[in-house]
Amino acid sequence: MIPGASDPSSTPPTLLVPVTEPTATLTYETASARIEAIIRRLDSGEAGLRETLELCQEGRRLVEFCACELEAVGQGLEELRLDELVARLEGGRTAA
């Protein structure tokens, strides 16, 4: 073991394993759960310097993924509202 390195066996392995799923199969729910695990690990104060950096990098990627997912859902909802409006307007034309 490298001097000064933290012993990985002293921490739960589920907290150290990064999300390795391809973005295509990653879900918002999985990403947000992993973000919560990262936050718990960072808040514990037990992460070493290198692990802290890696967790922050992973967390940033996951937050960006979640933001994109939320934006896509928001756009989808906006499109639904526009479709509803167009349908109402077209319905009003035929009734007049």
Task: Give a description of the structure.
By secondary structure, the protein is an all-alpha fold. It has one domain (11-95). Helices cover 71% and strands 0% of the residues. It has three helices and no strands. Helix 2 packs antiparallel against helix 3 (49-95). The chain starts with 12 loop residues before the first helix and ends with a helix.
The number of distinct helices, counting runs of at least 4 residues, comes to 3
Question: What integer value in Å does the Rg equal?
Answer: 22 Å
Specify the biggest β-sheet: none
Instruction: Give the overall form.
Output: rod-shaped
Overall tally of structural domains: 1
Strand content: under 5%
What is the overall pLDDT average? 81
List keywords for this structure.
single chain; 96 residues; mainly alpha; 71% helix; rod-shaped; disordered N terminus
Itemize the secondary structure elements and their pairings.
Blueprint: H1 13-16, H2 28-44, H3 49-95
Helix pairs in contact: 2-3
Task: Summarize the entry for a quick read.
By secondary structure, this protein is mainly α. It has helices at residues 13-16, 28-44, 49-95.
